[in-house]
Amino acid sequence: MPQMSDESEGIAMQSIVLPDSLDISYAAELHALLRDGLEAGEGVELQAAGVSRLDTAGVQLVAAFLHEARARSLPVRLVEPSDALVSAAERLGLAALIPAPTGTP
After folding, report:
1. Please, which residues have CB within 8 angstroms of residue 11's CB and are 6 or more apart in sequence?
2. Which residue, of 4, 10, 13, 18, has the fewest CB within 10 Å?
3. Residue 51 to residue 83: CA distance in whole angstroms
4. Residues 6+ apart with CB under 8 A from 98
5. Which residues are bridge partners to 3 per DSSP?
6. What does the pLDDT read at residue 100?
7. Integer Cα distance of 90 and 21 in angstroms
8. Between vectors from CA 86 to CA 72 and to CA 88, what angle results, nearest 5°?
């Protein structure tokens, strides 16, 4: 899972690319990466365009991360969430945390 810093807006942003398969088999590794992002105290950008398969554990992990980052007042962006991720979030009642991209019905 590649990471990089993006300081294009003057804010240090750690970029995390979510895997194509966001499921329980990858949850522990992703949890550790997301936890490290929170503990760094920097903003985090989640690249979510490639997520094509996921389960409840994966969606909950992303939603919990977004919630916690906002609670800590850390800048956080969910970039290009895939249709699969948005649809799963809607089914689980998490659309407020994982919304459809702007301009999407």
Report:
1. 42, 43, 75
2. 10
3. 8
4. 59, 62, 63, 66, 78, 81, 85, 86, 89
5. 16
6. 85
7. 18
8. 100
